[in-house]
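Late entry, evening session. Most of the bench is empty. Finally got around to the prediction I had been postponing all week. Sequence below, unchanged from the version circulated by S.P.
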Amino acid sequence: MYAERLRETLPHVRETIERACAKAGRSSDEVTLVAVTKSHPFEVIRAALDAGLHDLGENRVGELSDKVAEFGRPEGLRWHMIGGIQSRKASTLPGLADLVQSVDRLKVARKLSGAAGDEGVAVLAQVNTSGEDAKGGFEGERVVEEILEVAELEGLRLEGLMTMAPFVEDEAILRATFSGLRETLDRVRRHRPGVGHTLSMGMTNDLEIAIEEGSTMVRIGTALFGGRPGYEGAG
């Protein structure tokens, strides 16, 4: 089922990314496609790998653990943790996720730092640029200061920032959300140039606008795999 679907959907998603990049005067090589496999069974991983998708996103630590146990961490496959993290589970992520995108507060960052070990762990700081109460992430007057604290923690490699836009059609709101993340990263990098350039922003419903606003990583689930059993929302 998933393999057949991807033969139709993946070329369309890649075409959408290329079109948005061309409009923005960018190369599509600048944008990483993370296939959001959360809430789907093991079959989706097999289909994604066979289709040449090697960046896979999960939003629950337990599900990520199960899928890593089944498929391992071979060279070329990158597991992304993209969902909210309970601080008590943060210490289990080193060794599971190749990139933890959803570091939304210092408590989680410190837990990851304490468990990082010699290899360290790559992270993105999640920023609430939309101001929605339901969204997690660093925000407010100390947002840059707190992100810089994340960057200074031992064992963490801060590769950039992530945000989630509101599920709306208002282009002005979406552009403000995405440009806000880009501007926040610029401010962080002025203080600490060693922070990476990654801007993880854009999902199925808003990826073109995100790319036009500078996204270097989009998280796509629904457009690739269809709706997820028992899950409401968009990826």
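Two things to note before I forget:
The domain at 2-225 is CATH 3.20.20.10 (TIM Barrel).
The two ends are 19 Å apart (CA to CA).
Will write this up properly tomorrow.
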